[in-house]
Amino acid sequence: MVRLLVTAIVIAAMAGGGFWAYGEFASPAAQVSDQVPTIAVTKGDFRRTVDSIGEMKAARSALLNAPYSGQVVKLLEEGARVQKGDTLIWMETEEKEEQLKDHRNELGLAEKDLESAKEEYRLQEQQNGFSLKAEEARVEIAEQRYKDSQQKYAAEETLVQKKISPQSRLDEAELAMLQAGVELRNARINLQKTEEN
């Protein structure tokens, strides 16, 4: 009987301790589960939205510059992979095309002016060549006249010494020789000026 009573007390104590332990350890879990929001699971797309203030940046970014300013009409789609030389931005080009057309017209006029200047230069070179040859010919003619006048003067001088010709003819020959010398000097000056020009 005592044994039965001791067994009953031990069983009761164990049952009470188990009930107490269950209340102590099960209770906080129940309280925590009451504080966490839950929702029933359903089949569908998983959407996650983050509401936060801040700035998003790409992991790798690069600064792009266009060769000219203008209105962007198309961009390469976001996230597309590109290679060096690929087009990323399409810009309005009408204004630039008009400017290019104007510049091409100006270039055409400048090229015509250049051709005219080249032709004028070529003609001027020819004219200069002719002028130089003409002046050289004048010098040659003046030199020949001067030589002829010298020979005539020498001949007249001999005739005057032999009293065959009058002194007046020697004076005329001397005057002609002096005039031929002046003409030769002027021809050489003109040739030098022409060469310098």
Strand order of the largest sheet: 1-2
Number of strands: 2
Report the structural category: mainly alpha
- With helices defined by DSSP (H or I, 4 residues minimum), what is the helix count? 3
For the terminal residues, how far apart are their CA atoms?
153 Å
Helix content: 55-70%
Mean pLDDT: 83
Please tell me what the overall shape is. rod-shaped
- H and E string: HEEHH
- Report the C-alpha radius of gyration, rounded: 60 Å
Unreliable runs = none
Strand content: under 5%
- Main sheet? 2 strands, antiparallel
Description:
It is a single chain. With 197 residues, the chain is mainly α. It is 67% helix and 4% strand. The protein is built from three helices and two strands. It has helices spanning 2-35, 94-161, 167-196, and strands spanning 72-75, 89-91. The chain has a two-stranded antiparallel ribbon.
Task: List the keywords.
about 65% helix, single chain, two-stranded antiparallel sheet, mainly alpha, about 200 residues
Can you summarize this structure?
By secondary structure, this protein is mostly helical. It is built from three helices and two strands.
